[in-house]
Amino acid sequence: MTSKGFSFAIKFQFTGTPGSFEHLLSINPASTTPYFELMRNVTTDILIMGYYNPNQNELADFGSYAQDTTYTVISIYDPTVGAKGTLYQYKNGTLNASFTVTNAALADFTSTNTYIGTAKDGSSALNADIFFAAFYKRVLTASEIASISSVVS
User: Fold this and answer.
1) DSSP symbols for 28-66
2) From the centroid of its chain, how far is CA 53?
3) Is 14 exposed, middle or buried (0-12, 13-18, 19+ CB in 10 A)?
4) Can you give the pTM of this predicted structure?
5) How many CA atoms lie within 13 A of 61 on its CB side?
6) Which residues pair with 129 in a beta bridge?
7) Which of 32, 68, 96, 145 could form a disulfide with 91 if both were Cys (CB 3.0 to 4.6 A apart)?
8) DSSP-based three-state secondary structure for 93
9) Residue 75 forms beta bridges with which residues?
């Protein structure tokens, strides 16, 4: 996939004992970097999205997500906003957080591997129930975000 932006929607509920860096999404090229990951931070209830590139890692804190509560989350990378793109996260249909990418322009980010519920090496499995997951090779519109959030909530 060559990125002109992307969107990832997931309806999930964290269950059981929190694990270390549980992955909801990992988008990786054939090589090791650059890549994106959406995961729960260590054993907390904080959801983070990271962009990793050699010596240029960036992490965006997207707030708390409680155990045993169902959420619909839509994460978006829009390469047209800001000099190097912006990450957005919608929680149950409402913009929860945004983060401006500062280190690397990603308009030509290419990935051949996308993992849901695990890291690229099979580690950090997600301890959650997944009710819905969808990946889009573009930035969703505001009406699409509202529609997805209302239909899967």
Assistant:
1) E-SSS-SEEEEEE-TTSSEEEEEEE-TT--EEEEEEE--
2) 16
3) buried
4) 0.84
5) 6
6) 13
7) 96
8) coil
9) 8, 89
